[in-house]
Every structure is written in structure tokens, then in C-alpha cells.
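Next comes one such specimen:
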Amino acid sequence: MKTPSGQPYLRKPPWLKVPPPYARHSHHIRATLAGLNLHTVCQEAHCPNIAECFADGTATFLIMGNTCTRNCLYCHVMHGKPQPLDRQECERLAKAVRDMNLNYVVITSVTRDDLPDGGAYFFAECIDRLRRENPEIKTEVLIPDFRGNQAALDKTIKAAPDVINHNIEVVRSLFGRLRPQGNYTLSLNILRHVSRRAVIAKSGFMVGFGETNDDILSLMDDLASTGCARLTIGQYQQPTLKHWPVAKYYHPEEFAKLKEIAYQKGFQHVESGPLVRSSYHAAREV
């Protein structure tokens, strides 16, 4: 079988083959989420770490529904016209966090370009609800770009999450093709704005799209220039044959080298590996 460009599809190397999430605790988490009608990016995006993270009793909550208004060529989250916001979702989220006995919560969302503030108020509301439930809880939010609405971004910052993550996802040279509704410079400016506040700024990207080594180093420099403190680097894995094909599977030793380079460029905490995603080991960073 070949890619649309005529190149053969690459077979996954052994280090990317992970066991399915059949652990007892994984079933408990799935049941809890289903019972409360909650979504996780772990499930919606077919994250390769779902077995490990669910077995550890952790999950990244996906708020504001599971339908994204954008259609990035690497992403498996459903896109289309989203449903209206569910005003009871924050309450159910707080209950799930309590039932799962979590002390560190990662919250992300689909991109909601249909909302005037991109959903910033809803992020703030969820953070506030969790804090009222447990004042000691640590929160990390993985936010969209809010279409450059700084008032929306400030609304999220004011809610005082411990970490604000905004993923750049791909190198500059491929950004326009893979994220046609996004903007590379805008994403950098979001991270720059966050890092100037009393909030930890974090970002992440994937490799394997066809980028060069110079592309990766340039991206690291761009991120470092914003004051971004934390970084995740992972392997792109093609969700379906309709998505962008994998150009290269990086070896774990290459990820180790990228991690070393990232620390040399000034990042304070780096997770780099074939199965790393933006919230992988997030609680260990605090």
C-alpha cells in the first residue's frame, strides 16, 4: 500500500507497539468517564499512551464537546459543527476528578471558533470549580489559540492554572499545510504572553512529518525565545489512511539527543520520546 505521493507506508517499529489498555483500573476510568458523559483527548485522539496513563489513574479531560471546528491533517479528533456548550460539564468534571482521586488535572478542549471567546470563559469556569472542590489541586490547561483574542487568553490566565500549554505541533515549514486554520507566529505570541505572567508556559511538537533537523532546531529556538519553560517532543503516528503519512519514525536515541539539545537551549523540563504527548508525565513536572 502506498501514500498519495506514491511512497510506501512505513511500518511501525517495535518501540511504538504498546499493549491495549485492558488493565482493571483502565476499565474503571472508562466507566467513570462514560457514566458522567465526559470525553478525554486520550480516547478521542487515539493517544498511544492511553494504556499507561489509564493504568496510572490519569486522564486529560476534553471539554466543550468532542467536535472541533478545525481540521488539522494529523489529528483524529472529529471535526464539524459542535453542539452547544453543556453548562453542567464543569460540575461533572469535578465529580470525575473526585471519584478518580486526582491531585493533578489536565484540561484541554477542541477548538471552538464558533464561540466569541473561543471557550476561554469555560476553561476559567472549570478551573474555578475544581479549586472550590479541592484548593490544593494542581491544574494544567492545554488551550487553542482563541484566534488571537488576547482578552480571552487573559481570562484563562486570570483563572490561575498552574501551567498553560499551547502546542505549536509542527515546524514552521510545514505549519501552513498541516494546520491551515492556525498561525505559527500567533502561537508563538500566545506562549510569549503567557510566559510574561506568573504562569508556567509549556508547548510541544511532533516529528515524523518530513521536517529536517534544521527545521527542528529552528522551532526549538523559536519556542525558547518566547520564554516557554516546558517542552514535549513526540513521534507523529498517522491515525488513518486519510491523514498525513508518516515520513520517518525517529529512534529513541534520536529523541534522547533532541532532549539534550532542548535543555541546552534553556528549557526547564523536557519530555522527549516516541510515545510522548503533550500531557505525558505532566504531574511529575510539578
User: Anything to note?
Assistant: The chain has one domain: 21-285. The beta strands are 39-40, 60-63, 104-109, 138-142, 163-165, 200-207, 230-235, 269-272. The mean pLDDT is 88. The CA atoms of residues 255 and 273 lie 5 Å apart.
